[in-house]
Amino acid sequence: CTPAVTQVVPCMTRRKQFATDAQDGSAPSTSGRSWEQASTGADQKPLYSAHPLLEDRLLLRDFIQNSLYHPTKGYFNRPQSVVGHLQTPIDHWKLYCAEEWRMLINKKYKELENSFLTPAELFSPWYGYILARHMLEHRKHTLGKEGLPLRIIEVGGGNGTLARDMLDWIRDNRPDVYPDTTYTCLEISSKLAAQQYDAVVVKGGHGGRFHLSRGNAWHPSTWGNGPVWDHTYVLMMEVLDNLPHDRVYRRSEKHPWHQTYVVALPDKAAQQGAPSERLFSPPHSSAMDVSPSRAFKSRSRQGCSMEAGPWREELGPLEDPLIKRALASSYVPTTLEERLDRRLNRLLDFLLARESEPEVAE
What we know:
Shape: globular
Distance between the termini: 45 Å
Helix content: 25-40%
Structural class: alpha/beta
Number of strands: 12
């Protein structure tokens, strides 16, 4: 079995708080306090690892964290736009059928090149309208909190399209609720935070209702200075598939767990055009017996790069304390009855498949 274990990882860079000025091209604070921005210079380390002794290999969660959120090399901080934006909403009323919809989306993706489109972008403004209306109906009829301030927190707000559409609907349809509405985006990417401010505040006109908090949502400080016990709706759109996680492996319940590392391939393999690959070394492999300093410093001398790749995955003995705690608290071993049930279900599926096969006349 190869269960994936989702972990909370530390932020890669220290963050400092400073007041911003709209004249220098950055977004000013919208909440009466300065928003947190990633610092530059020595704070931006090329790579981050939770293990202080590893320089030429990364735990899988650290590799994912760097690939997505590194302040200069991460996917969400690169100069090119990563979250696509439609200049004008799609007029769904003029689409004849599903095939026309697919053709239109394919055309949009070709125009955007490397960017991807979220449902909030594809179905704007209706996607945000539906969510906003549902929240107000839910808190009125289910929670009984009509008349109280409306608090919304979105983790990873993309281009700010969803926040703008939701605030637009509340302003236009519930003017009694709008003045007491607070919409906060927790954003780890400084580039996307600036885009959110431009879309919601500059173009959308929601300066008094919209707030930004720059930082990692895993850190309590990103959510504010102290707990607020008011009812809050938390939105996480397109977030779960971007969370760093670890992978652990063992042959059977009698064998020990192993954790996954990502290492860079040597120059010779890279020159031969070897693609990035997964290599699950067996526990008795000689690679497991080589000390990290010998195995990975030798790769460093061969000129491989953890920043540029190509990479491959390797297994090592389970040593990380965070993974150990996660396994101890959440992993439930498969019981004998469950294993027998699975085998019986596979047998039944096989027999039913054979009975459903059509007879071929000779």
